[in-house]
Specification:
Shape: globular
Oligomer: single chain
CATH topology of the largest domain: BirA Bifunctional Protein, domain 2
Bound molecules: adenosine-5'-triphosphate
CATH superfamily of the largest domain: Bira Bifunctional Protein, Domain 2
Strand content: 25-35%
Largest sheet: 7 strands, mixed
Strand order of the largest sheet: 3-10-11-15-14-13-12
Number of strands: 22
CATH class of the largest domain: Alpha Beta
Number of helices: 15
Radius of gyration: 25 Å
Length: about 450
């Protein structure tokens, strides 16, 4: 369990401009959060790091960006129309809806993940579980989590579409296109980053469970004979990426998903759980999807989705290993891991110990006094040059230096640079380190010499 409290993270995130409640001025929209200026930069840094790690630095991964709206036949063939369900019960008085498995877990019932929907219904009765408002519950039923919509002006069955609940299907339907364009050797992967939508019965825990989320997914196409070793390879790469983002190894746990709890397409799944402030919960997953999706799409579309090996051996429908990353949960895990408190001048100091390549602001630049034009002019010069070099550099002349350091600590800025009177004499600046609070004098020329980037 993390020592950090969720409410501290939420408060900092809101106060400092990482995330705001979606549609806040209208009272919000449950399950939606808006990323503010720092949140979106943090998220973008994570996405960029992922893209570099899994796509740009490899020759066997092809990136794509498929449309969110897809032909409804995609979701019929993939099994989502039939099976992308969560167990729902309703408070018979208030009509509020709850996820039955969550109610069972919240009431201390064990091994819920392995229960069928009928067993969950029985367990609710056996344990006399009522709604959080103390009222009786309705019978349990399956609830499909896809957002349904209509494409075009007519609203009949033929115009139905869904906001995608995962990015994966966009890759399966483009499998043949990429093979035809690039003739990749097997194994190879498609990768995609994008929004997904799930009409969660009870969104909760800040950005952990939302209705509009973002995912980074890879579909690795393999020969069935090698699925096990490929699974291990990608599971291990997934962990390497978590560590690269600064998540501590001892807070990451591989948990095998029991057959009853696996998604309808999966034959073997290992979730990575993380010690969040809200407890040990799923951060991401790695699933062996077999050839379920391509077989289903080949049958439903009538297209040949076989892979033809270059060595002349028999064509086959590839099997798939899918490492999946939920970006919102990753952002939460990164902030949770970085959230630190120490004592400074007899007071608690809150700071985000973010790795430099993840931090939304790389450097803050201030003149010691904002009413001294010579300091401001010099500081502006340094700021302009630093911004050109590092991009996300912040000008901060608000309040006294102590307050500026506090603010920058809270948003995880690794370095604060102050231009003072000595700078005017010898072109050196004070650089203050976020984690140690140590201050050193550095020539401006050194500050503006590129470091090896990660
Ligand atoms: P859970 O069991 O927590 O509902 P899941 O097993 O349904 O999650 P997957 O279908 O494996 O999740 O989705 C892949 C990843 O997408 C998850 O590991 C998670 O990081 C993210 N994710 C899924 N649902 C949500 C959600 N409602 N809010 C935020 N992230 C989500």
């Amino acid at each position: 369990m993390s020592e950090t409290k969720l409410e501290d993270i939420v408060s900092l995130a809101k106060r400092r401009g990482f995330m705001y409640q979606g549609s806040e001025i209208y009272g919000g929209l449950a399950g939606t959060w808006d990323y503010g200026p720092l949140g979106v930069q943090l998220k973008r840094n994570i996405i960029d790091a992922w893209w570099k790690f899994f796509v740009e630095s490899r020759e066997d991964v092809y990136g794509i960006d498929a449309a969110i709206l897809m032909n409804q036949k995609v979701w019929q063939a993939s099994g989502h129309v039939e099976g992308f369900n969560d167990p729902l019960v309703e408070d018979v008085k208030t009509k509020k809806r709850y996820r039955a498995d969550h109610l069972l877990e919240d009431n201390g019932v064990e091994a819920v993940a392995a229960m069928s929907i009928e067993q969950m219904g029985q367990a609710l009765k056996d344990h006399n579980i009522v709604s959080p408002d103390g009222n009786p519950l309705s019978d349990i039923r399956q609830f499909n989590m896809m957002f349904k919509t209509h494409v075009g002006a007519s609203e009949d069955d033929t115009s139905v579409s869904y906001l995608r609940p995962e990015t994966a299907q966009g890759m399966f339907v483009n499998f043949k296109n990429v093979v035809d364009s690039f003739s990749p050797d097997m194994p190879f992967a498609l990768a995609q980053v994008g929004k997904a939508f799930r009409n969660e019965i009870s969104p909760r825990d800040f950005i952990f469970r939302v209705r509009e989320l973002e995912q980074m997914e890879l579909e690795v196409f393999v020969h069935p004979d090698v699925w096990k070793e490929q699974f291990e390879t990608w599971l291990s790469l997934q962990k390497d990426f978590y560590l690269y983002l600064g998540l501590p190894a001892d807070k990451l746990h591989h948990v095998e998903v029991p057959a009853e709890d696996r998604a309808h397409y999966s034959k073997h799944s290992i979730d990575t759980e993380f010690d969040f402030a809200i407890g040990q919960k799923e951060l991401g997953g790695c699933a062996y999807r077999t050839n379920h999706d391509l077989t289903a799409h080949a049958a439903a579309s009538g297209k040949n989705l076989n892979y033809i090996p270059k060595d002349g051996s028999d064509p086959f429908i590839p099997h798939v290993i899918e490492p999946t990353f939920g970006i919102d949960r990753l952002v939460l895990a990164v902030i949770d891991s970085a959230y630190s408190v120490d004592q400074s001048n007899g007071e608690d100091r809150v700071y985000l110990r973010l790795p430099e390549h993840v931090a939304p602001v790389k450097m803050a630049i201030s003149p010691l006094l904002k009413n001294k034009p010579e300091l401001v002019t010099k500081a502006r010069e340094v700021f302009t040059a630093a911004k050109k070099m590092y991009g996300s550099v912040l000008w901060d002349d608000n309040g006294n230096i102590g307050k500026r350091y506090r603010r920058q600590d809270e948003i995880g800025t690794p370095q604060c640079v102050v231009i003072d009177f000595q700078t005017l004499e010898d072109d050196t600046v004070t650089v203050r380190d976020r984690d140690t609070t140590d201050q050193i004098r550095v020539p401006i020329a050194d500050l503006l010499t590129p470091k090896n980037s990660n």
